[in-house]
Amino acid sequence: MTFLETARLKLRKYTLEDAGFVLELLNSPEWIANIGDRGVRTLEDARHYIEEKYLAQYDELGFGSYVSVLKGSNTIVGTCGLYKRPKLDHFDIGFALLPKYEKKGYAFEATSALMNYARSELNMDTIYGITLPTNKASQGLLRKLGLEIIDRIRMEEDEAELLLFST
């Protein structure tokens, strides 16, 4: 079931059937380098990750992370979502693409639609973005979305210093 639509994409909630995509994405070199190794090695691990990280957030908040699917072909290209992190006062927007779909504008298209939804339907005035200082592509996308660096932070689960962006 489609949650949001853009010119080229449909955003929909995760299902357990997305385990193959999650397994591929979370083990891509880009994910591991920029987000971290989540220890997802099997389809069963991926289903558990979906249940724990995505389905639980839908139940708790009514929104969360979404699969980005190409219109027409239903090919999954990536993910984007709004996440509530314990250390942050506001939700942050996150995104990732399978490597073969990078540099085609899909991440901007999906995150723009989600930002508009967050503002208009969820009444979020402030939205954060977090990324590693070395992840220039994510920094560029966050700036294109209208976010600017406001701080450097460390999340409890990560040792690396992160850049904190805000609307």
Structure description:
The protein is 34% helix and 28% strand. With 167 residues, the protein is α+β, with helices and mostly antiparallel strands. The chain has a single domain (2-166), classed as 3-Layer(aba) Sandwich (Aminopeptidase). A five-stranded antiparallel beta sheet has the order 1-2-3-4-5. A hairpin with a 5-residue loop joins strand 3 (65-70) and strand 4 (76-83).
Topology record:
Elements (H helix, E strand, L loop, with lengths): L1 E4 L3 E5 L5 H8 L2 H6 L8 H19 L3 E6 L5 E8 L8 E6 L8 H15 L7 E4 L4 H9 L3 E7 L6 E6 L1
Antiparallel strand pairs: 1-2, 2-3, 3-4, 4-5, 6-8, 7-8
Helix pairs in contact: 1-3
Task: Give a brief rundown of this model.
By secondary structure, the chain is of the alpha+beta class.
Report how far apart the termini are.
29 Å
Strand order of the largest sheet: 1-2-3-4-5
CATH superfamily: Gcn5-related N-acetyltransferase (GNAT)
**DSSP summary, beta strand count:** 8
Low-confidence stretches: none
Estimate percent helicity.
25-40%
The main pleated sheet reads as: 5 strands, antiparallel
- What coarse outline follows from CA principal-axis ratios? globular
β-strand amount: 25-35%
**CATH architectural type:** 3-Layer(aba) Sandwich
The CATH topology, please? Aminopeptidase
What is the N-to-C succession of helices and strands? EEHHHEEEHEHEE
- How many discrete structural domains? 1
Rg over CA atoms, rounded to whole Å, is: 15 Å
Q: How many helices in DSSP terms? A: 5
